[in-house]
């Protein structure tokens, strides 16, 4: 259904065609960290509800947004998430990122990976394995739960308490090892500690015998959907030794941030 140009007054939803205005609306929606209603979005954008309703219907029919149980609240849809994941995995700056990752592995001697938050999971964007004989094999495209991974805790620490709880409630908090935190209060306490210290650890919480430490790649707006982490069997490192990786991890994170910034400006 075509939408006439004179029906849209919002400066944030601009475009010369209905398709471009739908895309602009999708950009606004993608920035939200919580559910939204037709009423709240209409008030925010200054678009009449009948017009906005038709636009949301089009996005919903394309599976780019979805409604929650009561049908009054909207959020981003799985198809949009899949598009974002494919862009991250197939980004043209993959080679530059991988060079940073390879150098990091050479420096610390352990496997390292670059991650992003995808729904209620952590998505591995890239990974370089150590040459050491004992290692845990994971590959780009692998997914791990948010609640028991170092990168996942970092992503959760950036969210509001309501968004964090909503993501964690979307799937059962499975206990993978005796160290896995599965109670909301314990996870929230852990996340608050991550906020204070600026890094996160997975202390055999996802896989027995595996320890992981991660930091965020700095983002221009203060938030980031990219992390960088080092993993090692506990036979080679302790929690205390993993902390020694932090300066090198942060330098690598800064290098990745510069690559992202240059790519955005290109």
UniProtKB/TrEMBL annotation:
Give the species.
Advenella kashmirensis (strain DSM 17095 / LMG 22695 / WT001) (Tetrathiobacter kashmirensis)
Q: What is this protein called?
A: IclR family transcriptional regulator
Q: A Gene Ontology molecular-function term?
A: DNA-binding transcription factor activity
Residues spanning the signal sequence: none
Q: Which residues form the HTH iclR-type domain?
A: 16-78
Do you know which InterPro entries this protein is assigned to? GAF-like_dom_sf (IPR029016), HTH_MetabolicPath_Reg (IPR050707), Tscrpt_reg_IclR_C (IPR014757), Tscrpt_reg_IclR_N (IPR005471), WH-like_DNA-bd_sf (IPR036388), WH_DNA-bd_sf (IPR036390)
Q: Which UniProt keywords apply?
A: DNA-binding, Transcription, Transcription regulation
Q: Where is the IclR-ED domain?
A: 79-262
One example of a Gene Ontology biological process annotation: negative regulation of DNA-templated transcription
């Amino acid at each position: 259904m075509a939408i006439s140009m004179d029906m849209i007054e919002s400066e944030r939803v601009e475009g010369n065609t209905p398709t471009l205005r739908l895309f602009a609306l999708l950009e606004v929606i993608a920035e939200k960290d919580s559910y939204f209603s037709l009423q709240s979005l209409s008030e925010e954008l200054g678009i009449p509800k009948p017009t906005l309703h038709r636009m949301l219907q089009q996005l919903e029919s394309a599976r780019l947004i979805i409604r929650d149980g009561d049908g009054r609240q909207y959020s981003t849809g799985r198809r949009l998430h899949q598009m974002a994941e494919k862009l991250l995995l197939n980004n043209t700056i993959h080679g530059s990122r991988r060079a940073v990752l390879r150098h990091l592995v050479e420096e610390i001697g352990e496997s390292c990976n670059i991650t992003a938050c995808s729904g209620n999971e952590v998505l591995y964007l890239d990974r370089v394995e150590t040459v050491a004989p004992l290692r845990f094999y994971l590959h780009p495209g692998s997914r791990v739960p948010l609640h028991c991974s170092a990168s996942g805790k970092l992503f959760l620490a950036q969210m509001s308490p309501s968004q964090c709880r909503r993501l964690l409630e979307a799937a059962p908090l499975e206990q993978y090892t005796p160290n896995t935190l599965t109670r909301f209060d314990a996870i929230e306490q852990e996340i608050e500690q991550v906020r204070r210290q600026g890094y996160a650890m997975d202390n055999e919480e996802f896989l027995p015998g595996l320890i992981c430490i991660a930091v965020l790649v700095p983002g221009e707006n203060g938030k980031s959907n990219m992390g960088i982490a080092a993993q090692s069997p506990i036979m080679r490192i302790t929690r205390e030794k993993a902390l020694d990786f932090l300066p090198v991890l942060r330098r690598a994170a800064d290098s990745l941030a510069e690559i992202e910034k240059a790519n955005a400006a290109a």
